[in-house]
Amino acid sequence: MTDRRARYDAAGPLIALAGLVAGVLVGVEVGPAPAAGVYAVGVIGLAASWWTTTRVRVALAALALGALGCAAMQRALDGGVDAPVHEWQGIRATFDATVARDPTGTPYSTSLVLRLHGVADDATGSVRPLRPALLYATGSGDAAGRLRVLTTGDRVVVSGLVRPLGPVDDWLQWRHVVARLERVSLLEFSPPSSPMFAVADRLRAVVLRGTSHLPLEQRAQVAGFVLGDTRELPRELEQAYRDAGLSHLLVVSGANVAFALALAGPVIRRLPLAGRFGAGTAVVVLFATMTRFEPSVLRASVLAATVMLTDLVGRPTSRLRMLALAVIALVVVDPFLVFVPGFLLSCAATAGIAFWARPIGAALPGPRVVRETTAVSLAAQLGVAPVLLARFGEIPVVAPLANLVAAPAAEPLGVIGLAGGSFAGLVAPRIPLVGAVVALPLRLLVDWVSLVARTAASVPLVVDRRAALAVVAVVSLAAAGWRGRGGSLRRDASRSGRSLPDAPTR
After folding, report:
1. What is the DSSP letter of 338?
2. Record: fold of 84-193
Protein backbone atom coordinates (compact mmCIF):
# COMPACT_ATOMS: atom_id res chain seq x y z
CA MET A 1 0.00 0.00 0.00
CA THR A 2 1.50 3.35 -1.07
CA ASP A 3 1.96 6.23 1.35
CA ARG A 4 -0.72 8.28 -0.47
CA ARG A 5 -3.20 5.39 -0.37
CA ALA A 6 -2.34 4.75 3.30
CA ARG A 7 -3.08 8.37 4.23
CA TYR A 8 -6.34 8.30 2.28
CA ASP A 9 -7.26 5.01 3.97
CA ALA A 10 -6.64 6.61 7.39
CA ALA A 11 -8.42 9.90 6.67
CA GLY A 12 -11.85 8.72 7.85
CA PRO A 13 -10.73 7.29 11.21
CA LEU A 14 -8.48 10.31 11.81
CA ILE A 15 -11.40 12.70 11.25
CA ALA A 16 -13.57 10.56 13.51
CA LEU A 17 -10.82 10.60 16.16
CA ALA A 18 -10.65 14.40 15.95
CA GLY A 19 -14.40 14.54 16.56
CA LEU A 20 -14.03 12.24 19.57
CA VAL A 21 -11.25 14.32 21.14
CA ALA A 22 -13.22 17.52 20.55
CA GLY A 23 -16.18 15.94 22.33
CA VAL A 24 -13.98 14.94 25.27
CA LEU A 25 -12.74 18.54 25.62
CA VAL A 26 -16.32 19.82 25.49
CA GLY A 27 -17.23 17.32 28.20
CA VAL A 28 -14.55 18.80 30.48
CA GLU A 29 -16.03 22.28 30.01
CA VAL A 30 -19.63 21.12 30.54
CA GLY A 31 -18.71 19.30 33.73
CA PRO A 32 -19.88 16.20 35.63
CA ALA A 33 -23.26 14.72 34.72
CA PRO A 34 -24.79 11.29 34.03
CA ALA A 35 -25.23 12.39 30.37
CA ALA A 36 -27.36 9.37 29.53
CA GLY A 37 -29.21 11.25 26.78
CA VAL A 38 -26.03 12.46 25.08
CA TYR A 39 -24.58 8.97 25.33
CA ALA A 40 -27.66 7.48 23.66
CA VAL A 41 -27.48 10.06 20.86
CA GLY A 42 -23.85 9.14 20.24
CA VAL A 43 -24.55 5.40 20.12
CA ILE A 44 -27.51 5.84 17.75
CA GLY A 45 -25.54 8.21 15.51
CA LEU A 46 -22.60 5.83 15.34
CA ALA A 47 -24.88 2.93 14.43
CA ALA A 48 -26.63 5.03 11.77
CA SER A 49 -23.31 5.99 10.16
CA TRP A 50 -22.89 2.42 8.87
CA TRP A 51 -25.96 2.86 6.61
CA THR A 52 -24.73 5.99 4.83
CA THR A 53 -22.33 6.77 1.98
CA THR A 54 -18.62 7.17 2.63
CA ARG A 55 -18.40 10.96 3.03
CA VAL A 56 -21.61 11.23 5.01
CA ARG A 57 -20.50 8.24 7.09
CA VAL A 58 -17.26 9.96 8.12
CA ALA A 59 -19.03 13.19 9.06
CA LEU A 60 -21.79 11.40 10.95
CA ALA A 61 -19.29 9.14 12.73
CA ALA A 62 -17.23 12.18 13.79
CA LEU A 63 -20.33 13.89 15.21
CA ALA A 64 -21.51 10.71 16.91
CA LEU A 65 -18.09 10.07 18.45
CA GLY A 66 -18.02 13.70 19.57
CA ALA A 67 -21.27 13.08 21.46
CA LEU A 68 -19.86 9.83 22.88
CA GLY A 69 -16.66 11.57 23.96
CA CYS A 70 -18.59 14.36 25.68
CA ALA A 71 -20.88 11.89 27.46
CA ALA A 72 -18.02 9.57 28.45
CA MET A 73 -16.05 12.47 29.96
CA GLN A 74 -19.08 13.82 31.84
CA ARG A 75 -19.88 10.36 33.21
CA ALA A 76 -16.24 9.79 34.25
CA LEU A 77 -16.13 13.13 36.06
CA ASP A 78 -19.49 12.41 37.67
CA GLY A 79 -18.19 9.09 38.98
CA GLY A 80 -15.37 10.88 40.76
CA VAL A 81 -17.68 13.46 42.32
CA ASP A 82 -20.17 10.84 43.55
CA ALA A 83 -17.59 8.33 44.82
CA PRO A 84 -18.90 6.93 48.14
CA VAL A 85 -15.51 7.31 49.80
CA HIS A 86 -16.07 11.07 50.09
CA GLU A 87 -18.31 10.56 53.11
CA TRP A 88 -15.22 9.59 55.15
CA GLN A 89 -13.24 12.74 54.34
CA GLY A 90 -11.32 13.87 57.39
CA ILE A 91 -12.00 10.54 59.14
CA ARG A 92 -9.69 7.59 59.70
CA ALA A 93 -11.29 4.46 58.27
CA THR A 94 -10.39 0.85 57.49
CA PHE A 95 -10.81 -0.38 53.91
CA ASP A 96 -10.67 -3.66 52.04
CA ALA A 97 -8.77 -2.96 48.82
CA THR A 98 -6.60 -4.25 45.98
CA VAL A 99 -3.27 -2.73 44.97
CA ALA A 100 -3.93 -1.07 41.60
CA ARG A 101 -0.46 0.37 41.01
CA ASP A 102 2.94 -0.73 42.29
CA PRO A 103 4.38 1.24 45.22
CA THR A 104 6.89 4.01 44.55
CA GLY A 105 9.07 6.22 46.71
CA THR A 106 11.74 5.50 49.31
CA PRO A 107 11.93 2.93 52.11
CA TYR A 108 10.77 5.70 54.48
CA SER A 109 8.01 7.28 52.35
CA THR A 110 5.95 5.11 50.03
CA SER A 111 2.91 5.80 47.85
CA LEU A 112 0.65 3.49 45.86
CA VAL A 113 -2.80 3.41 44.30
CA LEU A 114 -5.51 1.27 45.90
CA ARG A 115 -8.83 0.13 44.47
CA LEU A 116 -11.39 0.05 47.28
CA HIS A 117 -13.91 -2.78 47.57
CA GLY A 118 -15.39 -2.26 51.03
CA VAL A 119 -15.19 -0.39 54.33
CA ALA A 120 -15.02 -1.98 57.78
CA ASP A 121 -17.84 -1.27 60.20
CA ASP A 122 -16.21 -0.62 63.59
CA ALA A 123 -19.40 -1.51 65.45
CA THR A 124 -19.96 -4.96 63.93
CA GLY A 125 -16.52 -5.76 62.53
CA SER A 126 -18.08 -6.64 59.15
CA VAL A 127 -17.03 -5.20 55.78
CA ARG A 128 -19.64 -3.23 53.86
CA PRO A 129 -19.22 -3.38 50.07
CA LEU A 130 -18.46 -0.13 48.25
CA ARG A 131 -18.60 0.90 44.63
CA PRO A 132 -14.95 0.55 43.44
CA ALA A 133 -12.91 3.74 43.68
CA LEU A 134 -9.21 4.54 43.44
CA LEU A 135 -7.31 6.19 46.30
CA TYR A 136 -3.75 7.50 46.36
CA ALA A 137 -2.33 6.01 49.56
CA THR A 138 0.82 7.24 51.30
CA GLY A 139 2.67 5.88 54.30
CA SER A 140 5.87 6.73 56.14
CA GLY A 141 8.20 5.20 58.69
CA ASP A 142 7.71 1.52 59.42
CA ALA A 143 4.46 1.49 57.43
CA ALA A 144 6.32 2.61 54.30
CA GLY A 145 8.59 -0.43 54.46
CA ARG A 146 5.59 -2.76 54.69
CA LEU A 147 3.74 -1.02 51.85
CA ARG A 148 6.80 -1.08 49.60
CA VAL A 149 6.83 -4.89 49.30
CA LEU A 150 3.30 -4.98 47.86
CA THR A 151 2.67 -5.56 44.15
CA THR A 152 -0.24 -4.92 41.83
CA GLY A 153 -3.07 -7.35 42.46
CA ASP A 154 -2.35 -7.95 46.16
CA ARG A 155 -5.46 -7.90 48.36
CA VAL A 156 -5.00 -5.72 51.46
CA VAL A 157 -6.78 -4.32 54.49
CA VAL A 158 -5.51 -0.82 55.28
CA SER A 159 -6.33 1.95 57.70
CA GLY A 160 -5.81 5.61 56.85
CA LEU A 161 -7.05 9.18 56.95
CA VAL A 162 -9.20 10.16 53.94
CA ARG A 163 -8.35 13.55 52.43
CA PRO A 164 -9.62 15.31 49.28
CA LEU A 165 -7.33 15.80 46.30
CA GLY A 166 -5.42 19.08 46.35
CA PRO A 167 -4.96 21.73 43.63
CA VAL A 168 -1.72 20.07 42.43
CA ASP A 169 -3.30 16.64 42.05
CA ASP A 170 -4.61 16.99 38.49
CA TRP A 171 -2.37 14.14 37.38
CA LEU A 172 -4.09 11.90 39.93
CA GLN A 173 -7.55 12.91 38.76
CA TRP A 174 -6.72 11.88 35.19
CA ARG A 175 -5.74 8.45 36.53
CA HIS A 176 -9.23 8.09 38.10
CA VAL A 177 -8.01 8.70 41.67
CA VAL A 178 -10.81 10.32 43.70
CA ALA A 179 -9.14 11.01 47.08
CA ARG A 180 -5.99 10.58 49.17
CA LEU A 181 -5.48 8.09 51.96
CA GLU A 182 -2.78 9.42 54.29
CA ARG A 183 -0.87 7.90 57.22
CA VAL A 184 -1.69 4.43 55.96
CA SER A 185 -1.18 1.33 58.09
CA LEU A 186 -1.15 -2.12 56.48
CA LEU A 187 -3.25 -4.48 58.59
CA GLU A 188 -3.57 -7.57 56.36
CA PHE A 189 -2.49 -8.69 52.94
CA SER A 190 -2.77 -11.73 50.67
CA PRO A 191 -1.26 -12.54 47.25
CA PRO A 192 -3.25 -11.85 44.07
CA SER A 193 -6.30 -14.05 43.72
CA SER A 194 -6.49 -13.41 39.96
CA PRO A 195 -4.65 -16.13 38.00
CA MET A 196 -3.62 -13.55 35.40
CA PHE A 197 -1.88 -11.36 37.97
CA ALA A 198 -0.33 -14.38 39.65
CA VAL A 199 1.18 -15.61 36.38
CA ALA A 200 2.27 -12.10 35.38
CA ASP A 201 4.03 -11.57 38.73
CA ARG A 202 5.87 -14.88 38.37
CA LEU A 203 7.04 -13.93 34.88
CA ARG A 204 8.18 -10.50 36.11
CA ALA A 205 10.16 -12.20 38.84
CA VAL A 206 11.77 -14.54 36.29
CA VAL A 207 12.85 -11.66 34.03
CA LEU A 208 14.24 -9.63 36.92
CA ARG A 209 16.01 -12.68 38.39
CA GLY A 210 17.75 -13.11 35.05
CA THR A 211 19.39 -9.69 35.49
CA SER A 212 20.57 -10.29 39.05
CA HIS A 213 24.24 -10.40 37.97
CA LEU A 214 24.07 -6.73 36.95
CA PRO A 215 24.94 -3.89 39.33
CA LEU A 216 21.91 -2.19 40.87
CA GLU A 217 21.90 0.86 38.58
CA GLN A 218 22.17 -1.20 35.39
CA ARG A 219 19.56 -3.65 36.67
CA ALA A 220 17.15 -0.79 37.35
CA GLN A 221 17.65 0.50 33.80
CA VAL A 222 16.97 -2.93 32.28
CA ALA A 223 13.76 -3.13 34.32
CA GLY A 224 12.76 0.22 32.83
CA PHE A 225 13.61 -0.79 29.27
CA VAL A 226 11.84 -4.17 29.44
CA LEU A 227 9.00 -3.65 31.93
CA GLY A 228 8.69 0.13 32.26
CA ASP A 229 9.53 -0.21 35.97
CA THR A 230 11.68 2.76 37.02
CA ARG A 231 11.09 2.55 40.78
CA GLU A 232 14.69 1.62 41.56
CA LEU A 233 16.23 4.02 39.04
CA PRO A 234 18.25 6.87 40.63
CA ARG A 235 16.38 10.13 40.29
CA GLU A 236 19.35 11.95 38.77
CA LEU A 237 19.70 9.31 36.06
CA GLU A 238 15.97 9.38 35.32
CA GLN A 239 16.20 13.17 35.01
CA ALA A 240 19.17 12.78 32.65
CA TYR A 241 17.08 10.56 30.38
CA ARG A 242 14.33 13.17 30.44
CA ASP A 243 16.66 16.10 29.72
CA ALA A 244 18.26 14.19 26.84
CA GLY A 245 14.91 13.37 25.23
CA LEU A 246 15.41 9.65 25.91
CA SER A 247 12.76 9.13 28.58
CA HIS A 248 10.63 7.18 26.08
CA LEU A 249 13.20 4.38 26.30
CA LEU A 250 12.11 3.79 29.91
CA VAL A 251 8.45 3.49 28.87
CA VAL A 252 7.07 0.25 27.48
CA SER A 253 6.04 0.76 23.86
CA GLY A 254 4.97 -1.13 20.78
CA ALA A 255 8.50 -2.46 20.33
CA ASN A 256 8.29 -4.23 23.69
CA VAL A 257 4.96 -5.79 22.75
CA ALA A 258 6.50 -6.91 19.46
CA PHE A 259 9.42 -8.48 21.36
CA ALA A 260 6.98 -10.40 23.57
CA LEU A 261 5.08 -11.68 20.52
CA ALA A 262 8.33 -12.63 18.81
CA LEU A 263 9.41 -14.55 21.90
CA ALA A 264 6.20 -16.58 21.74
CA GLY A 265 6.36 -16.76 17.93
CA PRO A 266 7.71 -20.33 17.57
CA VAL A 267 4.65 -21.64 19.41
CA ILE A 268 2.08 -19.26 17.92
CA ARG A 269 3.12 -19.95 14.32
CA ARG A 270 2.28 -23.65 14.71
CA LEU A 271 -1.38 -22.86 15.39
CA PRO A 272 -4.18 -22.30 12.85
CA LEU A 273 -5.15 -18.72 12.01
CA ALA A 274 -7.87 -18.41 14.67
CA GLY A 275 -5.55 -20.03 17.21
CA ARG A 276 -2.80 -17.54 16.37
CA PHE A 277 -5.16 -14.67 17.06
CA GLY A 278 -6.27 -16.16 20.38
CA ALA A 279 -2.74 -17.05 21.50
CA GLY A 280 -1.33 -13.71 20.34
CA THR A 281 -4.04 -11.81 22.19
CA ALA A 282 -3.34 -13.84 25.34
CA VAL A 283 0.38 -12.99 25.09
CA VAL A 284 -0.42 -9.29 24.65
CA VAL A 285 -2.80 -9.27 27.64
CA LEU A 286 -0.30 -11.13 29.80
CA PHE A 287 2.52 -8.76 28.85
CA ALA A 288 0.28 -5.76 29.52
CA THR A 289 -0.41 -7.21 32.96
CA MET A 290 3.31 -7.66 33.57
CA THR A 291 3.87 -3.98 32.72
CA ARG A 292 0.88 -2.86 34.84
CA PHE A 293 -1.36 -1.54 32.05
CA GLU A 294 0.45 1.77 31.71
CA PRO A 295 -1.21 4.07 29.13
CA SER A 296 1.55 3.55 26.56
CA VAL A 297 1.19 -0.21 27.05
CA LEU A 298 -2.57 0.02 26.51
CA ARG A 299 -2.02 1.86 23.23
CA ALA A 300 0.56 -0.66 22.04
CA SER A 301 -1.50 -3.66 23.16
CA VAL A 302 -4.75 -2.54 21.53
CA LEU A 303 -2.85 -1.65 18.34
CA ALA A 304 -1.23 -5.11 18.30
CA ALA A 305 -4.62 -6.75 18.81
CA THR A 306 -6.03 -4.63 15.97
CA VAL A 307 -3.25 -5.77 13.64
CA MET A 308 -3.87 -9.41 14.51
CA LEU A 309 -7.61 -8.96 14.01
CA THR A 310 -7.13 -7.50 10.51
CA ASP A 311 -4.93 -10.48 9.65
CA LEU A 312 -7.62 -12.85 10.97
CA VAL A 313 -10.39 -11.35 8.84
CA GLY A 314 -8.10 -10.95 5.83
CA ARG A 315 -8.40 -7.16 5.58
CA PRO A 316 -4.92 -5.65 6.05
CA THR A 317 -4.99 -1.87 6.37
CA SER A 318 -2.61 1.04 6.91
CA ARG A 319 -0.81 1.64 10.17
CA LEU A 320 -2.38 5.08 10.49
CA ARG A 321 -5.88 3.66 10.18
CA MET A 322 -5.17 0.94 12.76
CA LEU A 323 -3.64 3.49 15.13
CA ALA A 324 -6.67 5.77 14.80
CA LEU A 325 -9.09 2.89 15.42
CA ALA A 326 -7.09 1.68 18.44
CA VAL A 327 -7.01 5.18 19.96
CA ILE A 328 -10.73 5.67 19.34
CA ALA A 329 -11.52 2.44 21.17
CA LEU A 330 -9.34 3.39 24.14
CA VAL A 331 -10.60 6.97 24.46
CA VAL A 332 -14.25 5.91 24.27
CA VAL A 333 -13.60 3.51 27.16
CA ASP A 334 -11.41 5.92 29.14
CA PRO A 335 -11.62 9.59 28.04
CA PHE A 336 -9.15 10.60 30.77
CA LEU A 337 -6.37 9.17 28.58
CA VAL A 338 -6.51 12.36 26.52
CA PHE A 339 -4.84 14.14 29.46
CA VAL A 340 -2.19 11.51 30.27
CA PRO A 341 1.24 12.56 28.87
CA GLY A 342 2.51 9.00 28.46
CA PHE A 343 -0.47 8.07 26.30
CA LEU A 344 -0.19 11.22 24.17
CA LEU A 345 3.55 10.75 23.63
CA SER A 346 3.08 7.10 22.69
CA CYS A 347 0.37 7.94 20.15
CA ALA A 348 2.33 10.89 18.76
CA ALA A 349 5.52 8.86 18.31
CA THR A 350 3.64 6.06 16.53
CA ALA A 351 1.84 8.54 14.27
CA GLY A 352 5.12 10.29 13.48
CA ILE A 353 6.71 7.00 12.43
CA ALA A 354 3.68 6.09 10.30
CA PHE A 355 3.65 9.52 8.60
CA TRP A 356 7.31 10.34 8.09
CA ALA A 357 9.57 7.32 8.57
CA ARG A 358 9.39 6.17 4.96
CA PRO A 359 9.78 9.61 3.31
CA ILE A 360 12.68 10.51 5.59
CA GLY A 361 14.35 7.15 4.96
CA ALA A 362 13.99 7.63 1.19
CA ALA A 363 15.64 11.07 1.41
CA LEU A 364 18.60 10.03 3.56
CA PRO A 365 21.87 8.72 2.11
CA GLY A 366 23.78 5.68 3.34
CA PRO A 367 23.16 1.97 3.95
CA ARG A 368 19.56 0.84 4.31
CA VAL A 369 19.90 -0.30 7.93
CA VAL A 370 21.33 3.07 8.99
CA ARG A 371 18.75 5.01 6.97
CA GLU A 372 15.79 3.10 8.42
CA THR A 373 16.98 3.41 12.02
CA THR A 374 17.70 7.10 11.57
CA ALA A 375 14.37 7.72 9.83
CA VAL A 376 12.36 6.01 12.58
CA SER A 377 14.13 8.01 15.27
CA LEU A 378 13.69 11.35 13.49
CA ALA A 379 10.05 10.60 12.62
CA ALA A 380 9.27 9.73 16.25
CA GLN A 381 10.90 12.97 17.40
CA LEU A 382 8.85 14.97 14.92
CA GLY A 383 5.72 13.26 16.19
CA VAL A 384 6.30 13.93 19.88
CA ALA A 385 7.61 17.50 19.47
CA PRO A 386 4.15 19.17 19.48
CA VAL A 387 3.11 17.20 22.58
CA LEU A 388 6.33 18.06 24.42
CA LEU A 389 5.98 21.74 23.55
CA ALA A 390 2.32 21.87 24.56
CA ARG A 391 2.85 19.94 27.79
CA PHE A 392 6.30 21.03 28.99
CA GLY A 393 6.94 24.22 26.99
CA GLU A 394 10.29 23.13 25.56
CA ILE A 395 12.22 20.29 23.96
CA PRO A 396 15.97 19.62 24.13
CA VAL A 397 17.83 20.53 20.95
CA VAL A 398 20.08 17.52 21.36
CA ALA A 399 17.19 15.01 21.51
CA PRO A 400 17.29 13.93 17.81
CA LEU A 401 21.05 13.36 17.92
CA ALA A 402 20.84 11.56 21.28
CA ASN A 403 18.18 9.23 19.91
CA LEU A 404 20.25 8.48 16.82
CA VAL A 405 23.29 7.59 18.90
CA ALA A 406 21.33 5.57 21.47
CA ALA A 407 19.05 3.71 19.01
CA PRO A 408 21.60 1.05 17.91
CA ALA A 409 21.95 -0.07 21.54
CA ALA A 410 18.36 0.48 22.66
CA GLU A 411 16.74 -2.04 20.31
CA PRO A 412 19.00 -5.03 21.12
CA LEU A 413 18.79 -4.06 24.77
CA GLY A 414 15.03 -4.66 24.74
CA VAL A 415 15.39 -7.99 22.95
CA ILE A 416 18.23 -9.32 25.12
CA GLY A 417 16.64 -7.96 28.27
CA LEU A 418 13.36 -9.78 27.68
CA ALA A 419 14.51 -12.97 25.95
CA GLY A 420 17.89 -13.34 27.67
CA GLY A 421 16.54 -12.26 31.04
CA SER A 422 13.70 -14.78 30.80
CA PHE A 423 16.02 -17.61 29.84
CA ALA A 424 18.61 -16.73 32.48
CA GLY A 425 15.91 -16.35 35.12
CA LEU A 426 14.66 -19.87 34.38
CA VAL A 427 18.01 -21.67 34.34
CA ALA A 428 20.22 -19.43 36.49
CA PRO A 429 19.27 -21.16 39.78
CA ARG A 430 20.81 -24.37 38.40
CA ILE A 431 23.38 -22.90 36.00
CA PRO A 432 24.55 -19.55 37.44
CA LEU A 433 27.01 -19.06 34.57
CA VAL A 434 24.10 -18.36 32.20
CA GLY A 435 23.12 -15.27 34.16
CA ALA A 436 26.68 -13.95 34.01
CA VAL A 437 26.84 -14.53 30.24
CA VAL A 438 23.56 -12.69 29.64
CA ALA A 439 24.65 -9.85 31.93
CA LEU A 440 27.77 -9.06 29.86
CA PRO A 441 26.07 -7.68 26.70
CA LEU A 442 23.32 -6.12 28.80
CA ARG A 443 25.84 -4.17 30.84
CA LEU A 444 27.68 -2.93 27.74
CA LEU A 445 24.44 -1.80 26.09
CA VAL A 446 23.04 -0.16 29.23
CA ASP A 447 26.32 1.67 29.91
CA TRP A 448 26.30 3.03 26.36
CA VAL A 449 22.73 4.34 26.56
CA SER A 450 23.26 5.86 30.02
CA LEU A 451 26.47 7.53 28.79
CA VAL A 452 24.54 9.04 25.88
CA ALA A 453 21.80 10.22 28.25
CA ARG A 454 24.20 11.86 30.71
CA THR A 455 26.25 13.47 27.95
CA ALA A 456 23.23 14.81 26.08
CA ALA A 457 21.62 16.04 29.30
CA SER A 458 24.67 18.23 29.92
CA VAL A 459 23.87 20.23 26.77
CA PRO A 460 21.69 23.12 28.04
CA LEU A 461 20.16 24.16 24.70
CA VAL A 462 16.37 23.85 24.40
CA VAL A 463 13.71 24.97 21.93
CA ASP A 464 10.70 26.72 23.44
CA ARG A 465 7.31 27.36 21.84
CA ARG A 466 8.29 30.64 20.17
CA ALA A 467 11.47 29.18 18.71
CA ALA A 468 9.53 26.17 17.44
CA LEU A 469 6.97 28.41 15.72
CA ALA A 470 9.81 30.36 14.09
CA VAL A 471 11.42 27.14 12.82
CA VAL A 472 8.09 25.90 11.42
CA ALA A 473 7.50 29.26 9.70
CA VAL A 474 10.97 29.27 8.10
CA VAL A 475 10.68 25.66 6.93
CA SER A 476 7.18 26.28 5.54
CA LEU A 477 8.36 29.38 3.63
CA ALA A 478 11.35 27.48 2.26
CA ALA A 479 9.16 24.56 1.19
CA ALA A 480 6.66 26.92 -0.45
CA GLY A 481 9.47 28.71 -2.28
CA TRP A 482 10.97 25.43 -3.45
CA ARG A 483 7.63 24.19 -4.77
CA GLY A 484 6.99 27.52 -6.45
CA ARG A 485 10.42 27.45 -8.10
CA GLY A 486 9.80 23.91 -9.32
CA GLY A 487 6.43 24.88 -10.79
CA SER A 488 7.96 27.92 -12.49
CA LEU A 489 10.69 25.80 -14.06
CA ARG A 490 8.13 23.35 -15.42
CA ARG A 491 6.01 26.14 -16.89
CA ASP A 492 9.06 27.66 -18.59
CA ALA A 493 10.08 24.28 -19.94
CA SER A 494 6.55 23.67 -21.25
CA ARG A 495 6.52 27.01 -23.09
CA SER A 496 9.86 26.25 -24.74
CA GLY A 497 8.70 22.79 -25.82
CA ARG A 498 11.09 20.92 -23.52
CA SER A 499 10.30 18.61 -20.65
CA LEU A 500 11.97 18.17 -17.29
CA PRO A 501 12.80 14.64 -16.11
CA ASP A 502 10.67 13.25 -13.32
CA ALA A 503 12.21 13.02 -9.88
CA PRO A 504 13.59 9.56 -9.09
CA THR A 505 11.38 7.36 -6.95
CA ARG A 506 12.33 4.69 -4.46
Report:
1. G
2. OB fold (Dihydrolipoamide Acetyltransferase, E2P) (2.40.50)
